Amino acid sequence: MNRKSVFYWLIGIVIAAIAMVAAFHFDHAMQNFIAQHQDRLANRMMNKISHFGDWPEHFAVGLALAGIAWWRGSKKWTRIFLAMLIALALAGAAGHVIKLTTGRARPSVKSEEVWNGPRLSSKFHAFPSGHVAASTAFFAVLCFANWRIGLACLPIPLLIGFSRMYVAAHYLSDVICAAILGIVCAIFVHCLLLRKIRNPRSTIRN
Q1: What's the Cα-to-Cα distance from 91 to each of 61, 99, 197, rounded to whole Å?
Q2: Which residues, in sequence order, are CB contacts of 109 under 8 Å at separation 6+?
Q3: Which of 2, 31, 75, 130 is the most buried (most CB within 10 A)?
Q4: So what CATH class is 3-198?
């Protein structure tokens, strides 16, 4: 790893740390803001976004796109879509382990202790947001492979993250930390599977 890469990693770590600290600091402020702006129509819409923004829907879309790319004979896009699925699965698995370990109560749950340790009940699986971790990992890989398309899809995980806070399933810190987890998983999968695609000498072009 050269000095330039180390510098970028350090900058990324500092930004992630600042984002996490700020998110925990503004947890209750964001919760109060959302509580003061509840609307029946918006609540219905956010519930639908929250429902369809889970990992099975992302997995189905990714699998369909990989199938189409394979059918059309595009090795490049088949590999990208499969990498997106792997990143999604990795982020989902890592997030689930953290959920079980930390046992953070959801905003909708009245509990004296926010952090309760290992719990099996989904009421104590707030940290991190599985929806956001999976969606971020999924689209971050796409962004690394083709930043124009990935950037156009960026509103999807952002909207999913807001919907999860709106329906009182997660705090702001749950969403921000989940997004960071998703990005880390995407970087890992990209370095492992997609670096050759960006290499000008690579034979993977179609």
Answers
A1: 17, 12, 22
A2: 123, 124
A3: 130
A4: mainly alpha
Where exactly are the structural domains of the chain? 3-198
What confidence tens digit (pLDDT) does each residue in 18-72 have? 999 999 999 999 999 999 989 899 999 999 999 889 999 999 999 999 999 999 9
What separation in angstroms does the CA of 81 have from each of 58, 60, 74, 77? 11, 11, 11, 6
Cα 8 from Cα 5, distance rounded (Å)? 5
Give the separation between CA 9 and CA 15, rounded to whole angstroms.
10
For 11-27, how does the pLDDT look when each residue is reduced to its tens digit (9 = 90+)?
A: 999 999 999 999 999 99
128 and 113 Cβ atoms separated by less than 8 Å: no
Residue carrying structure tokens 């072009």 = 205
pTM of this structure: 0.90
Which residues, listed in sequence order, are joined to residue 104 by a DSSP beta bridge?
Answer: 115
Q: What is the pLDDT of residue 7?
A: 83
Q: Could you identify the residue written with the tokens 């290992």?
A: 118
